[in-house]
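CORE FACILITY INTAKE
Project code: CF-77B
Contact: R.S. (postdoc)
Sample description: multi-component assembly, two entities in total
Requested service: structural model of the whole complex
Turnaround: standard
Below are the sequence entries exactly as provided by the requester. Do not edit them.
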Amino acid sequence: MALFTIENLTFSYPGEAPCLKNIDCSIEEGELILLLGDSGSGKTTLLKHLKPQLTPFGKREGMICFDGREISTGTVKQGAVGIGYVFQNPADQIVTDKVWHELAFGLENLGLSQREMERRIAEVVSYFGMEEWLYRDTNSLSGGQLQQLNLAAVLCMQPRVILLDEPTSQLDPIAAKNFLFLVKQLKEELGMTVLLSEHRNDIVYPMVDKVAYLRQGELLFFGDRNEAVRTLSNIAPAALPTVTRIYANIEVPPYERPPFDLAGGRRWLEGKLAARAADESETAFTTRETNIEKDMKKKTLLSRRAKTEGIRGESRKHKIAKGELAISIKELYFRYEKHGRDIVRELSLSIKKGECFGIMGGNGSGKSTILRLLAGLERPYAGKIKLTGKTLYLSQNPQNHFTKEQVAEELALVDSDRIEAFGLADLKQQHPYDLSGGEQQRLALLKVLGQEGELLLLDEPAKGLDEKNQNMLGQLIRTICASGKTVVVVTHDVSFAARYCDRVGMLFDGRVTGTSDVREFFLHNQFYTTITRRLTKGLLPSKLFPEEVKLGE
Amino acid sequence: METKRVAFEQLHPVTNLVYFLVIILVFTISMNPILQGIAYLSAFLYLCDIRGKGGVRSGLLVCLAAPFPIIINPLFSHEGMTILMYFKNGNPLTLESICFGMGMALLLIAMLVWFQIVNATMTTDKWVQLFGMGLPAFGLLLSMVFRLLPKLDRQRRMIKQCNPLESPYTRLSMLVTWGLEHSVDTADSMAARGYGSRRRSRFLIYPVKWQDRIFLCLTVLLGGVVAGMIIGGRMCFYYYPLLMLETEGILGVMGYAAYGLLCLLPLLFNGKESLKWHYLQSKI
């Protein structure tokens, strides 16, 4: 029997148009379901309807049954125990100051005995291997650890289903991968039912059973992930993982066995290329030797073509290369504590006027520190920074920049064309906190740009944004560069950097290494590159983005 | 600062608290420099044990506070019979007032080192459990405050860095808005985990163990001996009019020994536990 049955669910907030429309679906026990949709499509609202304690106020029609009973008639306790919920922001869900207390919090609410609580906490802590941090302060944990703690705290209550609302959007890629791996483990080892909304399709897609796609409150697709490829490739290709998107671009429907992960994708592409080569050789009636010769010729041709392609794309960058320096850093050293390690050492870097420079690197490599040094928020203990203008610093959290009660007040000094260009014109009456993540990011960027300064420093601007919002932000950054300002972006996001930066460097061991033109950088890298490149490496030359992959050439 | 996890910390908060109260009350009320000295030295040893070099440093650092009472007391107090010299205004400087200042200094530094131990031992979760014994809701509230304060402080610093030109008032209002906005999720998370659905139980991370009973008994026993001696006048020290130590033979010495043992109790307790550990290790 289905665990959740949703029939004809329609919901509207008071005085607004419906934000969920006629939703029908049923969720079986043991399934891992991926909930997709643009931000604002109603994913969170839908998830909150499945958790009685969180159901928002408004007008609701239709039925939601949990375990065969209407969900709103069940006792509060049943809802609290049977259905676990993990929210987007890792820090805000934490209630208490110690890890053990956070784990015990939900159990205390149920009024369990000391013995029972000890048993359950022991079980979950050992399952997750969290023994080391049991006595730690929750304030001392990283975002990834906090989110794992939230999941563990929910698991202590022994739920039958877990609802996860974009749980990794605030995490760095490695923490996100670890978290999603735990979710997969819960499904595989415990048979847990999971409903997950996520932007990181490339990681999640290979492990899900079913996919649900929401658009403006309508459930446009619900079903098997293979079937999803047929529907979504038409209506929302961006909702598919990169590998599948490329597959759907090249193959023709019906898509028999679409690949979801890289291994599958490469197998498919290799097969495809081999089949094509075989076709050609048959028609050309050539011998094996000439075939190889032809291959060689083709390869040189392709590489020559790649070179010319590169040069063509270079024209704008060429202009930058001639230009003067905007930022030059020489032999910089910095550490936070007197006896601590150097976060930045022997760092030399020059950034040209009008370019968008991306600094990439692992967690804790000091990427943000470099920006803070450039912004003058920290002081180096040796070395020199030369700036040709004032800096404008945008911190990781846009909310740090909001001082007013209304968007219009925040943007009092900005002319209306610009507000229009940033897509904020219709939101002037709103409170900054009521905007979506992407809108908040654009508002903070526009506000910071309103001040005087030529060097824009962006700390993880793409964090937590879906592809659509990332692209909007990226386009804006490009227009800012075109207007002569210099942009330095610190980011984890490979595809964002690959699309919108001019040059990229990798921060490692306190230094920026491998600085080069963005295409060269990502084409040269083996692992630290876009998924398209990893898919086509050795098979097709110089492809970074899904839309570049075509077999017709 | 690196602090070693020790057995004394694992005791029930009531055991810890009673112990600290007895120690501190004895050396403050008695005003006996020998008791204060014992208290200071044993606390110093304890800090060295749990923090190593850092303990030596913090144990010595508190001595910087000593000169103040030694200088200030003779300037204002002119009691005592041994006059050393006269100030310009005609008031006498007495040996006894200097000694009293020294006694005050000893009291001060003993207090400071013991508070460091209290601080290291009574972690937030111990206070939470202690207060929760009478008022469960207050215990949870305390824990939430301990969670919230560092979080707000971090955000305050972020806001300050991002908006250096804004007035402190604006920054405060930003912080309040941020705090309210983010507490919505916290409230949701509490509701989602069944808060308020029924009477809560309490998870005790520090249950009462047999070590607690023994430790508490020893504290009360030794503390009782010392208190008896002080009340009985066997361990008194007078600064005025003349310095005088009233110790009557064996009984007085026994009193000091009892207090010394009491002060070293945590150290001995930790030592015993680690000895036991080594013994068990060597058997494997």
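Facility notes:
- Chain B touches chain A through 45 residues (CB under 8 Å).
- Chain B has a mean pLDDT of 88.
Invoice: internal transfer
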